[in-house]
Amino acid sequence: MSTSTNSSATAIAIATAVNAGQSATVAVKIALAKAKADTLNAIIGVHETRALAAAARVDARIAAGERLPLAGVPLALKDNLLAEGLPATACSRVLTGFIAPYTATAVARLEAAGAVIVATTNMDEFAMGSSNETSVRGPVRNPIDPSRIPGGSSGGSAAAVAAGIVPLALGSDTGGSIRQPASLCGVVGLKPTYGTISRYGLIAFGSSMDQIGPFATTVADAALALRVMAGKDSNDSTCADRDPVGLEVLPADPVSVLKGLRVGFVAEHEAGLAPAVKACLDDAKKRLAAAGVILVPVTLPHERYAVAVYYVLATGEAASNLSRFDGIRYGHRSPTAQTLGEVYGRSRAEGFGAEVQRRIMLGTYVLSTGYYDAYYKKAQQVRRKIADDYATAFAACDVLLGPVSPTTAFKLGEKLADPLQMYLSDVFTIATNLAGVPGVSVPFGQDSQGLPIGMQLQAPMWADNRMLAVGAALQALR
């Protein structure tokens, strides 16, 4: 058979081949074999029976004359996304044994478009982490250098795409959890405008910032996945009532969109970057300018508060969201608990890992009587300032270009003892979530050790397609 249905091919190439009569079942079997052979700890569940049945249904639909945008494309899901009948634990002991009773809207739309779930991927526990080392299933290893982290919290999904196990994987991004691992693993990672994709069926972390998004090897594949998943959902009141038809197909000649485009950059972002990251950013600006882009310096004066604001707001929301995991209805229940108070206390203490406990305690503190105004309310006010800064910047430019991570992938265990240094891994991605604007990481280079470096593009709310068009051009200019 043609290599066009090999899972190392792009999602678009696989779907094109399957729509032309090649076998979805064959493509899925290849991905299943790769998932079973994973040595990175990226894959924590292989769903062979379900996948083969779904692939057979895709083949039958194609034989009946249907044409599906993601026909036969193998798909991996982060372990905080629900698919009916499959385990969903957020890589936490507290959800041991939980089986999803329904399917997330985003996942259901991908399946309806012909994608086939083959595996579940590892992640930081409850999406709280920047290195994929807080998982109860153990750390994920970077496919470029297994002694290093893949980024987090969606490290398993990033690694699965980078290793060629699947061409498409889903993650969630609350403060950079798609874009940062995409950069460190050398793949495309998209965080759409908040409200573009329904959060129904996503295990919540920070509800005002969480957004589902895809990992892929090309911007075109990510854009296709976005078009399929986007659109109003009555099950999610924060999902916008916008027509996904507005997310048009990217231009055949992506570089053609660049002439005359205003690309902003923040000079302050260049301070403190690893030399290789700074060199990549300079190279990206140089190539864009040569293609006709107008480079525009802009400022985001309140962005320096983004990390502090995020760890007030996100922890507050996490403390609220995770209060439902109480040892009563589902998940881990302490076998030694005798009283109701012990059920709550011991089940949560035994079920949640150290990082999750830390964030719950921080969140409980900032929401408590006497501290709410000083911390949570003040953080919301600064969040508004950050969003206003973006609006001002986008009045002067069409998209923003900058780094995703200040460094390339660091060694496993290197930052575990210093939570603050770990949190600063997301210093360039957090403000995107606070403002609700879209962001995408596009692979653009590597350091002297061959470790990948991604560039981040951001755009105004609902200008995802403009951002992706520039991303496709940036990928073409590499």
Task: Explain what you see.
The chain has 478 residues and is of the alpha/beta class. It has a domain at 3-246: Amidase signature (AS) domain (Amidase signature (AS) enzymes, Alpha-Beta Complex), CATH 3.90.1300. Helices cover 37% and strands 13% of the residues. The chain has an 11-stranded mixed beta sheet with strand order 1-3-2-4-6-5-10-11-9-7-8, sandwiched between helices. The protein starts with 10 loop residues before the first helix and ends with a helix.
Fold blueprint:
Layout: H1 11-19, H2 24-36, E1 43-46, H3 48-63, E2 74-78, H4 105-112, E3 116-121, H5 155-162, E4 168-173, H6 179-185, E5 188-191, E6 211-216, H7 219-229, E7 262-266, H8 275-290, E8 294-298, H9 306-321, H10 340-351, H11 354-367, H12 373-396, E9 399-403, H13 419-423, H14 430-435, E10 439-446, E11 452-458, H15 464-476
Parallel strand pairs: 2-3, 2-4, 7-8, 7-9
Antiparallel strand pairs: 1-3, 4-6, 5-6, 5-10, 9-11, 10-11
